[in-house]
Write a structure and sequence with these properties.
The structure holds 2 protein chains of 2 kinds. Chain A is an all-alpha fold. Chain A contains 15 helices and no strands. Chain B starts with a helix and ends in a 5-residue tail after the last helix. Classes of the chains: A mainly alpha, B mainly alpha.
Chain lengths: ~290, ~325
């Protein structure tokens, strides 16, 4: 009895000391509904027919029109554009991790003469808006035959993300104790071998974060794709989806189904690797 | 070491090898100077080709009347003179950019500061709520725009639903088609996706606030509101100022959301510098003029950064 009353008293005491959180929950859940509501509507409308959308634009679907997905897949040319975007994402991520990984390792450990100047140039460059150099860049890419060329976009994306990737990877590598590498060097490993078999396994969270941010950014990129690729057969999903919405703007069900197919990979990636995503956001202060 | 060297000295007597392998790796110049640069070179070369060289040549473009084809004529600062004193569209675009900046320096910051503070107090379910809140941020701009274009459309969407359910027809309007509301409607759409980004940033900053400060405030009898004003906001002030600076810069560069919704219309009501430049460069093929616009935009972005750095140098603690 005494134990129980003591327990009760401690419970009440805690309740009195902790301020009530109902207001916090109310506001935060309201904003969560604001954030998720439109996405839920998007998923629900992706299986509605045109007739139902006229009478029931927001609510739960009464009949499920799964054909929307099939029609959107065919008319939106998704077989081609998903391939284009996947190629862009995979190649950009690989290029980014390889070349920025090499540079970051050198800047973190090998002390290239003038390395500091290189980093200052990179840092200054990352503050230059793309609008300043988009016209000369366009002309250069035209002269090099890189317009309407997915490799041209890959080069742009790799260069654009380079400052962020190099600085993030470098900061991860600096946290590794040099003894690990020295041990490998004494065993006769070359610098490339050190990077591959000592640094990579230890700094993998950095590589994962950079890879994730690059993948999400490349998948969602619109502005450069709009300017540098005008051939519909080479469109990534974003510009192709914008064109699709332009043609079928009246058919909300169809455009919603196409949107769901476009965002499904992004949502899966985000939900499975949230921590890396948040690390990347807070480290780089990037805006998509 | 000496002995090993000594044994190798009579190399002339050894059979001349056709394939004498040079051990580059053993040479200090290679290992200390060249190799580190070989690692940096690929991305350094690409970066200069994409960013540095075009950024520098852009300045020379802006002094010509080049159309992107054929020969260019040097016309000095004529492009800038036209831009500032004769081109009404530019002035309009610039004003809209200022409106855009004003909106984004206030609305998302207020929302994010309040919500991240309230969320930082919650223990149970906080992770789940945080994840749910962030989902709009990872959506591509094309999808965000298409979702809200449908929801804001007058003949379908939220307005229709409200008029059906409650019989109120005032919300059933073409927000994006009306010159008076279009810019705010687009800002609303962009903000729906953007403000949660600030929540992430502020939550991280709030995690490093010492709990002692809150305990001390509690002892003084502070309410949640007072804690927010006197403990939380001052503690995240450096982050807040940094993000204000970044958002001010970004607000000059906005393009996606405006181009995807209205392309600057109706009647130029949502024209911003980004869409203006895009049209000049890639529709009217005024390469020289568009470069001048790009330089002007960047100048304002740099001006904001310079202002913040100036304040920091002067010892203002932000």
């Amino acid at each position: 009895m005494a134990a129980l009353s003591r327990k009760l008293r401690s419970v009440f005491k805690r309740q009195r000391r902790e301020p009530s959180l109902w207001l916090n929950y109310f506001v935060v859940l309201l904003m969560t509904a604001f954030a998720l509501g439109p996405i839920v509507v998007l998923f629900m409308n992706s299986v509605k027919g045109t007739a139902e959308l006229g009478s029931n634009p927001i609510g739960f679907p009464r009949t499920f029109v799964w054909e929307n997905y099939l029609v959107a897949w065919q008319r939106g040319n998704f077989a081609t554009t998903l391939g284009n975007s996947s190629f862009l994402v995979v190649t950009t991520v690989l290029a980014q991790l390889t070349f920025c990984g090499l540079a970051a390792y050198s800047l973190a450990r090998l002390n290239p003469p003038g390395g500091n100047i290189f980093m200052v140039v990179m840092l200054t460059g990352s503050t230059i808006p793309v609008w300043l150099y988009i016209v000369p860049l366009f002309m250069l890419w035209r002269d090099l035959g890189l317009l309407n060329n997915l490799w041209g976009l890959i080069l742009l994306y790799s260069a654009g993300g380079a400052p962020f990737a190099i600085f993030l990877l470098r900061s991860f590598m600096l946290q590794i104790h040099p003894d690990f590498e020295d041990a490998a060097r004494i065993d006769g490993a070359s610098e490339l071998q050190v990077l591959w078999s000592v640094i990579m396994p230890l700094a993998w969270p950095g590589f994962l974060t950079v890879g994730l941010m690059t993948a999400l950014g490349t998948w969602s990129e619109y502005q450069l794709a709009l300017i540098f690729v005008t051939d519909p057969e080479l469109f990534p999903v974003t510009t192709s989806y914008a064109a699709f919405v332009g043609r079928f703007s009246r058919d909300w069900g169809l455009t919603s189904a196409a949107a769901v197919m476009l965002i499904a990979p992004v949502l899966l990636m985000f939900l499975s690797l949230q921590r890396q995503f948040i690390d990347g956001l807070t480290a780089g202060g990037v805006k998509a | 070491m000496q002995n090993v060297r000594a044994q190798r000295v009579p190399s002339a007597l050894a059979a001349p090898s056709k394939y004498r392998r040079v051990n580059w790796y053993a040479r200090p110049f290679f290992r200390k100077k060249l190799l580190p640069w070989l690692f940096v070179l690929p991305i350094g070369f690409l970066y200069s080709a994409v960013v540095i060289v075009p950024a520098l040549t852009g300045i020379s473009y802006a002094l010509t009347n080049w159309s992107g084809m054929g020969s260019a004529q040097y016309i000095g600062l004529e492009n800038f003179r036209t831009l500032f004193f004769e081109d009404d569209n530019f002035v309009l675009a610039f004003q809209n950019n200022l409106w855009w900046m004003l909106i984004f320096l206030t609305v998302p910051f207020t929302m994010a500061l309040v919500v991240s503070f309230l969320l930082s107090r919650i223990k149970r379910g906080a992770m789940l709520i945080r994840t749910a809140l962030f989902v709009p941020y990872v959506l591509p701009s094309v999808v965000v725009v298409s979702i809200w274009q449908n929801l804001m459309s007058p003949r379908k969407g939220l307005g229709l639903q409200i008029s059906r359910t409650f019989g109120i027809d005032t919300f059933n309007r073409a927000y994006l088609g009306n010159p008076d509301t279009a810019l705010f409607a687009i800002a609303f759409i962009d903000n729906w996706h953007f403000w949660v980004f600030l929540v992430v940033i502020f939550l991280t900053a709030m995690q490093s606030i010492s709990p002692d400060l809150y305990d001390a405030a509690k002892i003084d009898g502070a309410s949640q509101f007072h804690e927010f004003i006197y403990v939380t906001v001052p503690s995240v002030l450096p982050t807040l100022v940094f993000m204000l600076m970044m958002v001010a810069i970004w607000s000059f560069l906005v393009f996606d959301y405006i181009y995807l919704t209205t392309q600057g219309g109706p009647a130029g009501a949502t024209e911003v510098l980004g869409t203006f430049l895009y049209k000049e460069a890639f529709r009217r093929f005024e390469a020289g003029y568009a470069s001048a616009v790009g330089i002007t935009m960047s100048f304002f972005a740099m001006l904001i950064m310079g202002f913040v750095i100036f304040l920091r140098r002067r010892g203002v603690e932000i």
